[in-house]
Design brief:
Number of helices: 10
CATH superfamily of the largest domain: Spore Coat Polysaccharide Biosynthesis Protein SpsA, Chain A
Number of strands: 40
Structural class: alpha/beta
Oligomer: single chain
Strand content: 25-35%
Radius of gyration: 31 Å
Number of domains: 2
CATH class of the largest domain: Alpha Beta
Length: 485
């Protein structure tokens, strides 16, 4: 027992362990995929729960796995790291009590507070769980053997009821099918989130019997057994039922997606000064960051770890995933931007596609039906129409004409194209990589460039050849530029 201070509150607390139950398939999802692997806000349900658990700074997070155990474990590791959790396998799914009992060998002798969560409750907040743990540890100045989280529902049908005695203390949990008419009128229900004194949990759990039609072992039987033993059992009544609700069907998954999206956009509007023209038709993932005075139009999707600076305008039909956008950027209608970076004061689109670590330097622009893949466009350079730039590095103040293609694939390997500063690429130019276009050079319309282009030269033809050296003034400007470097 913890040492007591003079004010009858614990001076020290046992360490916190977290046990996440994630073994079930979730038959009501009508899926071959384990329920906790279904995506919400771009991340598996189990990832949301585990991330919230880490905010409590527990000694260890343990995850009980069963259906598709390896895939569930991988999802947790992607969120927490390779060593972020310990995995415990429930070989047969025989109820919540059996799932917790699977952790007995790991936790049975632990001197800890054990917080038990379900892997399908993605919206629960760390602040709520911290309040539950605090009440558990300080109940009556000495802590409780068990503390359950409860909520009140207008329609509690189907849920286990929390029955209290005349003094308002916990008496028992009654399942819907076992409840009397009077008990069915009770609207306080068990939310399925618990704190236990770990040393008291497992001996009580060993006494649970599968006395139900399903032959399952219910964790909900344990609080009653502890109370019968004379231990204190507490209830933490929470006010937000939606926050602590689980997801059981596709309908609920869609509803939670809406709630998560609304919660995120509300924070962005109130705290970050972002304007959403129509939040009901805008999709923003939980980890997205958007700066002040940005305007986001309807039917925009911003996903993953995207960061957007101040004063940007993002027009309808655009999807941005895992990208970094600078300040003062305009992204016009129907653009797709994935794993890319756009510097300050750039313009993108409409109908542009940036992917695979493409990068736009300051004040550059790509326009209608331009695709960039693994390429860099230098500052104040432009590619405005019907162009493919793959595995290309393009310098400053360069113009890429309509219909230009960097032919980066020879059938076996990818090759790079390098276009230096102050270059003009004529319309319908084919640049057959590997190839370099020198500083200040020009390609005529329709050229097929198969060899390096010297600086300050004009090339044309199929294949392109040097037609002339550009005027002396241009050469002098180039030489002056080189000396300044």
């Amino acid at each position: 027992m913890e040492k007591q201070s003079q004010n009858n509150t614990p001076e020290t607390h046992a360490l916190l362990d977290v046990l996440v139950l994630a073994a079930g398939l979730g038959t009501r999802m009508r899926s071959q995929k384990a329920k906790v692997l279904h995506q919400l806000g771009g991340r598996p349900l189990i990832a949301h729960v585990c991330r919230t658990a880490t905010a409590l700074d527990p000694r260890r997070i343990h995850v009980v796995v069963g259906h598709q155990a390896e895939v569930v474990a991988k999802a947790v590791q992607q969120e927490l790291g390779e060593d972020g959790a310990t995995f415990i396998e429930q070989t047969e799914q025989r109820g919540t009590g059996d799932a917790v009992m699977a952790a007995r060998e790991m936790l049975g002798e632990a001197n800890s507070t054990l917080l038990i969560l379900s892997g399908d409750v993605p919206l629960v907040r760390a602040e709520t769980l911290a309040a539950l743990v605090h009440q558990h540890r300080t109940h009556r100045g000495r802590g409780a053997a068990c503390t359950m989280l409860s909520v009140r529902l207008e329609d509690p049908s189907g849920y286990g009821r929390i029955i209290r005695d005349a003094e308002g203390r916990f008496e028992k949990i009654v399942e819907q099918r076992d409840a009397t008419p009077e008990e069915k009128l009770v609207n306080e229900i068990n939310a399925g989130i618990y704190c236990f004194d770990t040393r008291l949990l497992f001996p009580a759990l060993a006494r649970v019997q599968p006395s139900n039609a399903q032959g399952e072992y219910y964790l909900t039987d344990v609080p009653g057994l502890l109370r019968t033993d004379g231990a204190d059992v507490a209830v933490y009544l929470h006010t937000d039922a939606r926050e602590v609700s689980g997801i059981n069907t596709r309908v609920e998954l869609a509803e939670f997606e809406r709630l998560l999206r609304e919660r995120k956009m509300r924070r962005l509007m109130l705290d970050s000064g972002v304007t959403f023209i129509d939040p009901r038709h805008t999709y923003v993932s939980p980890d997205v960051q958007i700066g002040r005075d940005c305007v986001v139009y309807p039917d925009v999707h911003i996903e993953g770890q995207t960061i957007i600076g101040d004063g940007c305008e993002i027009r309808s039909g655009t999807r941005i995933t895992d990208s970094r956008i600078g300040n003062g950027v305009t992204i016009k209608d129907h653009c797709v931007i994935i794993d890319s970076e756009i510097a300050d004061n750039c313009t993108v689109g409409p109908f542009a596609h940036l992917r695979m670590n493409s990068k736009l330097e300051q004040s550059s622009a790509v326009g209608n039906f331009v695709e960039m893949k693994k390429s860099r466009l230098g500052s104040h350079s432009k590619a405005m129409h019907l162009t493919y730039l793959g595995d290309a590095t393009i310098g400053e103040e360069t113009n890429i004409g309509a219909g230009t293609i960097t032919c980066n694939y020879d059938g076996k390997n990818k090759h790079e194209t390098h276009i230096e500063d102050h270059v003009k690429i004529g319309s319908d130019t084919m640049l057959v990589a590997p190839v370099r276009v020198g500083h200040g050079a020009v390609t005529a319309a329709g050229s097929v460039v198969t060899k390096d282009v010297p600086p300050d030269s004009l090339v044309a033809g199929v294949p392109a050849v040097v037609k002339k050296q550009l005027k002396q003034e241009a050469i002098s400007t180039t030489e002056d530029h080189g000396r300044k470097q």
